[in-house]
User: Which sequence fits this backbone?
């Protein structure tokens, strides 16, 4: 199943992944970062200015169908919620109770009864196989302690033929750019995220057809991935 992106040049296929290594003690683990909860006010004030428009436009471009079941992995304070149509059934999960509390305030204030949020580990989703028509996740892959496990769970819960939308910073394929950004990784890990995650590594051999949306600018730090869950073999 091929996905065509409007107003964009042809997407390039994802390169085969390298074998995933075992988790190490130096992995990002934001839920245990002492600074994580303290960043929520700054997150609410600054982060939307950087990523909100891209996230909202990407959700709208999914053309979510009536009665579709949607899962957002790592919904945080709910920055993305305005883009989800009221004709869909949206579930958002996050490991941070503090961020979910902010999301619930927004849901009640706006009357978004089509959205439900709940605490859950992105690496251990508590949903049956093939539960959702759409799965979205924004700037979460490089935050969890095991990105491969998270993506495996996403592939498990999305229905065959269903859509997965990922926006994240991924390691540049340009060796010079990658080397420069990699130098920040030891620092960012103390804050709960990493800079050296490759999208090829996290997708691996999962049953997903993945296409990379061309960046609007060569200087953009963020990549948009569109994936379709492949039909299971008979």
Assistant:
């Amino acid at each position: 199943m091929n996905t065509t992106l409007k107003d964009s040049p042809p997407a390039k296929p994802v390169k085969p992944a390298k074998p995933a290594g075992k988790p190490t003690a130096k992995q990002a683990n934001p839920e245990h970062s002492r600074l994580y909860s303290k960043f929520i006010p700054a997150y609410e004030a600054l982060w939307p200015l950087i990523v909100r428009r891209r996230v909202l436009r990407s959700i709208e471009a999914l053309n979510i169908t009536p009665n579709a079941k949607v899962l957002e992995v790592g919904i945080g304070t709910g920055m993305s919620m305005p883009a989800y149509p009221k004709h869909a059934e949206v579930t958002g999960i996050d490991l941070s109770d503090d961020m979910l509390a902010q999301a619930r305030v927004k849901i009640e204030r706006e009357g978004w009864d089509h959205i439900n949020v709940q605490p859950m580990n992105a690496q251990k989703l508590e949903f049956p196989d093939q539960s959702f028509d759409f799965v979205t996740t924004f700037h979460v892959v490089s935050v969890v302690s095991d990105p491969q496990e998270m993506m495996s769970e996403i592939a498990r819960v999305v229905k065959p033929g269903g859509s997965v939308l990922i926006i994240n910073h991924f390691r540049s394929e340009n060796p010079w750019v990658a080397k420069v950004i990699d130098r920040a990784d030891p620092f960012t890990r103390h804050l709960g995220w990493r800079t050296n995650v490759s999208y090829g590594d996290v997708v691996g051999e999962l049953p997903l057809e993945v296409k990379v949306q061309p960046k609007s600018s060569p200087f953009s730090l963020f990549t948009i991935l569109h994936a379709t869950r492949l039909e299971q073999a008979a």
